[in-house]
Amino acid sequence: MARRLKKLHIKTFGCQMNAYDSERMAEALQPAGYELTKSLGDADLVILNTCHIREKAAEKVYSELGRVRLTKEARKAHGHDQMVAVAGCVAQAEGHELIARAPVVDIVVGPQSLHRLADLVAEAQSTGERSVETEFPAEDKFAALPPRAQGKRQVSAFVTVQEGCDKFCTFCVVPYTRGAEYSRKPAEIVAEVERLAARGVREITLLGQNVNAYHGDGPDRAAWSLARLLQRLAEIPAIERLRFTTSHPHDMDDDLIALFGDEPKLMPYLHLPFQAGSDRILAAMNRKHTAADYEALIEQIRAARPDIALSTDIIVGFPGETDTDFEATLSLVRRVRFAQAFSFKYSARPGTPAADLDGQVPDSVKKERLAVLQTLLEDSRHDFDRATVGRRLPVLFEGKGRKTGQITGRSPYLQAVHVEGPDALIGYIAEVDISAAGPNSLTGVMKSGFEWREPVQAAV
Ligand code: SF4
Predict the structure, then answer these.
(1) Can you spell out the DSSP letters for 147-215?
(2) pTM attached to this predicted model
(3) N or C: which terminus of the chain has fewer CB atoms within 10 Å of its end residue's CB?
(4) Which of 18, 166, 174 to mutate to test the pocket of ligand 1 (most atoms within 8 A of CB)?
(5) Ligand 1 atom 8: the closest Cα is on which residue?
């Protein structure tokens, strides 16, 4: 008789690195007989993969656990067990507190220990004991995870190449929840990307909290930079597009900048947070760069790749921020002209140095400043999008559009593009004449008599 597959439900909060971790956890649990379900009520095992970046992150996890408790009780009433694990950065930060405050939780596992998840589940099932695993283990987590599973059709994939951060920006929890900077070995990354290529992936986004600080031990015993790693990955024939995120201005080296001009597979899009335009605030944030450093870098990047789409993160209302400081942020935004941006009101993270600084800015002021900034950023984004109207761009198609007969993909600048076209084009790159820029996406027309580029078959 066939073995009954157990159901696994993962709810992922936060960044792309968490999305990647969730995929790896699902794959690591496959050999133990778990398959994914979208239904919380059907799940034998529930994982909340949490994020600590947003305000009141821990409280949000506790209220989510309240909902999970109701489902677990309902299942129990029908004679079915449900195991609950909390993973990610809130798990790391809260640790034993989660077990103490939330009886529904069976397993707490930090991001550095997720390769142990299958063992922790098996142990909890056999002993009935609850467990907490939030150490930073000495073994290489990535080497201990099973290789990427085959079979799942996907056009674009994330690959984490670096974790943790040594920068200690005073507002940020990452150095405490993800630990010190760590880079995976290039050989391990190349093998993972080759497996992804073999299952149809055409675009890879390399992830890291501070990805451009990457320095992996190369097979030639040299430390490989991110530029060197990207060059190697560009040699994999079936991979057509490469991207990376998130970068720190301090770690943008000349080789990486030059690669934007030299390597056609490296897409002209760069997410480079600057956080604030005032040097006084940048120093209080411990950002290790000034506004002038940032602008000089942008000039160098644009000299290498003039059409590059620049994206950024900005915080408003950092402790001590005056109207003049805020004006410096607006002025930098006006000069750089970003294609995309993520802007936030400062909110204190317990345990970070900035949480204890004097001069906390009232919420009403932060709200006002954020509204002004976001209007400016939206204008800048629309200007960038409008400038692509009338151009012919290669679009990598990722899926069906919302309307019948429509398919959707991404331009080299990461803009969403909708066109009328056959589903058979999904997974391929085709030339599109951009005809209009909407609020959040572009529309276009497939070049008449188009030819699509057949991807080169992967060797693996
Ligand atoms: S560089 Fe990024 S991840 Fe590192 S401390 Fe600063 S904001 Fe956090």
Answers:
(1) PPPS----SEEEEE-EE--S---TT--HHHHT-S-EE--HHHHHHHHHHHHHTT--EEEEE-TTGGG--
(2) 0.90
(3) N
(4) 174
(5) 172
